[in-house]
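Box 3.1 A note on notation
Throughout this textbook, protein chains are presented in two layers. The first layer is the amino acid sequence; the second is a token string describing backbone geometry. Keep the layers aligned when reading.
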Amino acid sequence: VQLQASGGGFVQAGGSLRLSCKVSGTNIIVNNAAWYRQSQGNERELVARFRDLRGGINPTYADSVKGRFTISFHDADKTISLQMNSLKPEDAADYFCKANVWRANTGSVDYWGQGTQVTVSS
């Protein structure tokens, strides 16, 4: 199983970016999914997540991004997306996707994608 993140870049404050994370693997089930971020000198923090993709539970968000960011999951192509609107300089960070993935030979395992950098100018 691999997670491949993309979509980071440079944007001015008030702009938008859309991050994508493709979960690849054969005969897999994605149980939950999340986006984290880490800026220089700070710990990695949870931005948005689906706690249980199988249970129809609504996603949750960090207070700092509520109303601006939207996480989504497209099961057909196993892609986790993060739509980021009204970006602020404090949103600048490396963004990481994470997924809990089930396979018959491993059971449920957490996987991380590589970081994708988001830069927001004031």
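The first strand starts at residue 2 and ends at 6. The mean pLDDT is 97.
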